[in-house]
Amino acid sequence: MALAASERNIATSIILSIVTCGIYGIVWFIQLTDEIRDASDDETIPSGGVAFLLSLVTCNIYGFYWAYRMGKGLQSAEDRIGMRSSADNSLVYLLLQIFGLAIVNFALMQNELNMIARKRREARHEAYEERRTQEEVKKEVEKAEIIDKEQ
Questions:
Q1: pTM recorded for the entire structure
Q2: Exposure string (b/e) for 30-52, b if CB count within 10 Å is 16 or more?
Q3: Is residue 144 one of the residues assigned to a domain?
């Protein structure tokens, strides 16, 4: 079952990646991969740790495939929750990765994950409100039945 993706402040994540000389960028990469995998419910996407190791071992050649695959995963996650996205960004992510702009990929992917997390939170809130309203109506009906029986 999909875990809830956490919303992250993109500017903070970029600054932390720069200040920590890329260490936070690795953590962010792993978290993005895991959250996209969970959001898309696609078990064929490797875990973040495995994806990082594959990128490391292949001198980031795997990173090109990773960027494309994350775009497909985000598209799948958006389709699962009924979000209308403008386009499939897989090729954009691939091109940015080829030109060495992985941090831009991270930011764009995080932005999409943030939108997915907001949409899920709104859906859960609406479902909660609907259940609460149904329970209130049920209680009112029960009270009315009790009053009718007493009369």
A1: 0.81
A2: bbbbbbbbbbbebeebbebeebb
A3: no
38 lies in some domain? yes
- Euclidean distance between CA atoms 58 and 52, whole angstroms: 10
Over the stretch 89-140, which tens digit does the pLDDT of each residue have? 999 999 999 999 999 999 999 999 999 999 888 888 787 777 778 777 777 7
Q: In whole angstroms, what is the distance from residue 88 CA to residue 105 CA?
A: 14
Contact assessment for residue 46 and residue 127, using Cβ atoms and an 8 Å cutoff: no
* Cβ(24)–Cβ(13) below 8 Å: yes
**Whether 75 contacts 41, CB under 8 Å:** no
Domain contains 140: no
Overall domain count for the chain: 1
Q: Are 5 and 44 in contact (CB under 8 A)?
A: no
Give the structural domain span for 68: 10-117
* CA–CA gap between residue 135 and residue 141 (Å, rounded): 10
C-alpha closest to that of 87 among 99, 96, 78:
78
pLDDT of residue 1 exceeding 50: no
